[in-house]
């Protein structure tokens, strides 16, 4: 028989290459961490250091005075007898109205027959021009128009004082019927009129600080006006106030201040006034400076640019961009008490057990204490919104609900973001100087996030 030549195929054994497997594992591992690194939040931080600064804060303030507006009893061409800032007595002549316009023609015909402007008047005009040159800025071109108005008004007033008797003679000789307007009250006069003139402190809004929305109109000599036109203001008191908006952290900066010194950009005048914080009807908080002299220097202004002067301050220096806000529960400081050991701070809390009310002491990690409130973290387990707190030695109850924002930073020294409050004592555009002694606050060499808006409190950093 022939020998069988049937071929049986041989199955090769699959062998695992350990080196390839290790390479794939390492590649996957590295790819995972490269992707994680590229997609993770970028951590930018700064080290807290000691520092100091002296920086004047610049503001545009809004002026309110005790003033009233007087309107024209009839129409006609106005002849102003008194300039801005002049004090008028009750019954004093302020201006006259010429219904026909004939007086202007007759005055022009008699021009040059009376004495010229006095040397003292010329000196005063030169002072106004010198002041303008010294304080002019391209960014405040409205100052040009304000100065022009003041010069026009002054020149007209000087001229009219010279010719006031002549005006009476001309009107009598030509049987002109002039409506002579006298003042019903005494005070300083200004012919600069705006829509804020009779506004009260409690009615101020944010839009009132937009100078473009509240232009000033000026009544000029020999201008034709209609009946009931607002002609002039009478300021009844030397006391006047400037209201200004706070920059971020600025209210806290002046929290302990009762008086502030300011320097006005327009004339270089330095004044120290009483300082306070006011809240309007709509909850708008404003700084307020009150003065009892030099009102006359700003009588034609509604807005004024000034610096709040500060002395050198020393503390911890941190970047402005590292600061954020956080909400805290507020509890009146009168409700704060001590525990049984006389050491721990906390509150008496009302507890309901099966319909039976009882009072227990709960310790509290208090973030900040002021003369008015205690500030409690909203993550506190024992005190939440709706918790009823009992005043020591009293039946008075306070239900927790109100919150306020405090400024702070994220400290990252423990590997996660921890909110630390700050008390600002000085600032400029790039840095804050904060108090070293803030309760549970920052210390030298602490590390804080520069991009806190990209993180949440408690986020892991490393």
Overview of this protein structure:
This protein is α+β, with helices and mostly antiparallel strands and 462 residues long. The protein has 5 helices and 30 strands. The chain has a 6-stranded antiparallel β-barrel with strand order 3-12-15-14-13-16. Strands 22-23-18-26-27 form a 5-stranded antiparallel beta sheet, with no helix packed on it. A hairpin with a 5-residue loop joins β13 and β14. α3 packs antiparallel against α4. The longest helix is centred in the middle third of the chain and has 32 residues. The relative contact order is 0.16. This is Secretion protein HlyD.
> On the 0-100 scale, what is the average pLDDT?
83
Structural class: alpha+beta
> Could you give the count of β-strands?
30
Cα(first) to Cα(last) distance is: 82 Å
Described by its quaternary structure, the protein is single chain
Q: Helical region count?
A: 5
Unreliable residue runs: none
**Percent range for helical residues?**
10-25%
Task: Determine the strand fraction and express it as a percent band.
Answer: 35-45%
The number of domains is 2
| CA gyration radius, whole angstroms | 37 Å
Which strand order does the major sheet show?
3-12-15-14-13-16
Taking the sheet with the most strands, its summary is: 6 strands, antiparallel, barrel
Shape descriptor? elongated
């Amino acid at each position: 028989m022939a020998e069988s030549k049937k071929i049986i195929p041989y199955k090769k054994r699959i062998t695992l290459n350990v080196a390839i497997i290790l390479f794939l594992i390492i590649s996957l591992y590295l790819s995972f961490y490269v992707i994680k690194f590229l997609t993770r939040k970028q951590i930018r931080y700064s080290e807290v250091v000691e520092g100091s600064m002296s920086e004047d804060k610049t503001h545009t303030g809004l002026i309110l005075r005790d003033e009233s507006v007087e309107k024209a009893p009839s129409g006609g061409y106005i002849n102003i007898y008194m300039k801005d800032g002049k004090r008028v007595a009750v019954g004093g002549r302020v201006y006259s109205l010429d219904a026909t316009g004939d007086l202007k023609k007759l005055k022009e015909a008699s021009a040059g027959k009376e004495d010229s402007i006095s040397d003292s008047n010329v000196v005063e005009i030169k002072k106004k021009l010198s002041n303008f040159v010294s304080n002019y800025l391209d960014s405040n071109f409205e100052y040009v128009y304000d100065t022009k108005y003041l010069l026009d008004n002054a020149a007209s007033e000087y001229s009219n004082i010279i010719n006031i008797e002549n005006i009476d003679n001309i009107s009598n000789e030509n049987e002109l019927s002039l409506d002579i307007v006298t003042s019903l009250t005494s005070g300083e006069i200004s012919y600069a009129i705006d829509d804020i003139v009779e506004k009260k402190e409690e009615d101020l809004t944010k839009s009132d600080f937009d100078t473009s929305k509240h232009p000033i109109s000026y009544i000029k000599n020999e201008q034709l006006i209609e009946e009931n036109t607002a002609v002039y203001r009478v300021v009844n008191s030397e006391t006047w106030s400037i209201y200004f908006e706070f920059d971020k952290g600025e209210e806290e900066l002046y929290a302990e201040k009762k008086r502030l010194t300011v320097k006005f950009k327009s004339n270089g005048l330095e004044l120290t006034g009483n300082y306070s914080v006011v809240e309007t009807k709509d909850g708008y908080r404003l700084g307020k400076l009150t003065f009892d002299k030099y009102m006359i220097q700003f009588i034609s202004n509604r807005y004024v640019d000034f610096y709040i002067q500060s002395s050198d301050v020393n503390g911890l220096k941190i970047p402005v961009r590292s600061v954020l806000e956080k909400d805290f529960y507020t509890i009146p400081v009168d409700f704060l008490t001590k525990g049984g050991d006389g050491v721990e701070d906390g509150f008496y809390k009302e507890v309901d057990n099966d319909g039976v009310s009882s009072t227990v002491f709960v310790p509290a990690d208090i973030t900040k204490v002021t003369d008015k409130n205690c500030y409690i973290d909203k993550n506190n387990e024992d005190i939440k919104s709706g918790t009823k707190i009992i005043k020591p030695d009293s039946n008075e109850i306070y239900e927790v609900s109100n919150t306020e924002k405090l400024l702070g930073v994220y400290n990252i020294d423990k590997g996660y973001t921890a909110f630390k409050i700050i008390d600002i004592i000085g600032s400029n555009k790039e840095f804050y100087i904060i108090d070293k002694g803030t309760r549970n606050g920052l210390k030298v060499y602490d590390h804080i996030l520069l991009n806190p808006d990209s993180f949440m409190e408690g986020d892991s950093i490393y």
